[in-house]
From TrEMBL:
It holds the Pfam family Hemerythrin. InterPro entries: Hemerythrin-like. Residues 52-175 form the Hemerythrin-like domain. It comes from the Bacteria. It comes from Ferrovibrio xuzhouensis. This is Hemerythrin domain-containing protein.
Amino acid sequence: MSPPVAGEPFAMDPSAFPAASPALLHLLAALTRDEDDTGPFERLQGQRLMLLAVCALLDSLADACQPLQQRMAASLASYLQTDFPAMIAEEEDGLLPLLRARLLLGDDFDQVLRQMDEEHRLDRRQAALLAADCEALAGGLLPDEAAVLFSACRAFAEQQRRHLAWEDATVLPLARSRLTAADLAQWNRRARARRKPRTAAPGA
């Protein structure tokens, strides 16, 4: 199977993980299920579980043999360029505007939301840099260069695990308790609008 193309949605490449069973690949497909009948919290949870799985792969990249490293790096770069920013967009364009509208006087949540915005900004920048480095690894890197990348992969993975745990303890419980059925329907409409391919302009 050919390496992922930059900008294409992430898909698990079985050749990158030859020990993966069909059951494991089915599990990964379940995490990325994105259909019209999927609830927004269910969809977001699947994205977050996929990120945790990717973090484990980032941690283990240094331990793989070189051919496997190169195949893994191509898939990881694709994820960081597509699915990772899509998960952040799910929160920033779907969840957070609705949650802000449901905040009450005395919630004292402004600092939490500012921190979330700042961490997302840093996450996007770091993911873009790491994706470029993973693409370089897929093409072959010198041992010293690869060692720097492996350290960056582990640092990014740990940062993401801390961020997810923080959101689980602060943002998501409040969102689940405050968002209404109408809010969830609106969130789903926004998600469908983001996924809908843009139609080409007449004469393009």
